[in-house]
Amino acid sequence: MKILVTGAAGFIGYHMSQRLIEMGYHVVGIDNLNDYYDVRLKEARLAKLQQLEKFHFEKLDIVDSAKVAQLFASHQFDRVIHLAAQPGVRYSIENPMAYIDANIVGHINILEGCRHNKVGHLIYSSSSSVYGLNQKQPFSTEDSVDHPVSLYAATKKANELMSHSYSHLYQLPTTGLRFFTVYGPWGRPDMALFKFTKAMLAGEPIDVYNSGNMTRDFTYVDDIVGSVVRLVNVVPEADENWTVEKGETSSSSAPYKIYNVGNGQPTKLMAFIEAIEKSLNIKAKLNLMPMQDGDVLSTCADCQDLFETIGFSPNTEVEYGVKQFVDWYLSYYKN
Ligand SMILES: NC(=O)c1ccc[n+]([C@@H]2O[C@H](COP(=O)([O-])OP(=O)(O)OC[C@H]3O[C@@H](n4cnc5c(N)ncnc54)[C@H](O)[C@@H]3O)[C@@H](O)[C@H]2O)c1
Fold this sequence. Notes:
About 40% of the residues lie in helices and about 15% in strands. With about 325 residues, the protein is α/β, with parallel strands linked by helices. It has one domain (about 1-330): 3-Layer(aba) Sandwich (Rossmann fold), CATH 3.40.50.
């Protein structure tokens, strides 16, 4: 089986590609290696992947529709795992167009490639941020998600809608995965764990938003990857008995499905910081800040549906996961 992984040089795409190859799949990875964060980190992940025999890389921008069409035509992909995107909530406040390009134009190009080449299953990353103003916790895929608080979240919700239309019109099986705050080794420099670790090692204060009064459902990257690989061959089927009026929002009369992928164990931001302090054996200096635009106070995933489908849902303890990240960080940046 040949699988396309978009965003293969990214944090999740790197782990994803590695695991798929370990499982015996052939992986074609694409990425435009943009400079949203340190390109050297993307290149280092890629260099490790390129040592693997069953990995083939093409540098490609998913916004370029002709190149994407060419890629799909020259490989017959059995599955597509679409992770390339412009991530980050805060960056979307200042740079909205980057999200329209990568997340909207990029997504339609991937959908078109899947449609014209009869790909058997498209799995793509959505995000917990689609829950926006929702207050009821844990967040369920049966809750309405019509009130995003950032353009990033709006593009992720748009991806789900666009995918539904392709599932309906062209019977393209699509599975959208709402990832909840992913962390782990080789993680992103724009995310809290990386920024805090770096600042603490430099003896600098860390910016703690909403004075630390926030909780996040931190999800370890191996659990994300473990969930995705179990879903590769769980191809959604059209449910003829489904109607809008019955109210199920995560499935459809089309071959379409949405799952939450989160730990289901929200952690207070201050407890997360304590886990970093323990791993580093350094006390953090806190720079207490107000709430940021586009941020939400807390997230918690209801993963019952995921568990019932694949017999697994994320469960790694934050203390363990943070230690894995810190160990990686110290060895990677030892020079
Ligand atoms: N990390 C998280 O906490 C989290 C949470 C929810 C959802 N997600 C989603 O998961 C996916 C992967 O996230 P990540 O944390 O690995 O981010 P990442 O930025 O590390 O990886 C994304 C990769 O996509 C590439 N890319 C971006 N635009 C591209 C384009 N136009 N063409 C080709 N490649 C492009 C980037 O260069 C990058 O290597 C994204 O869709 C993100 O929105 C991540």
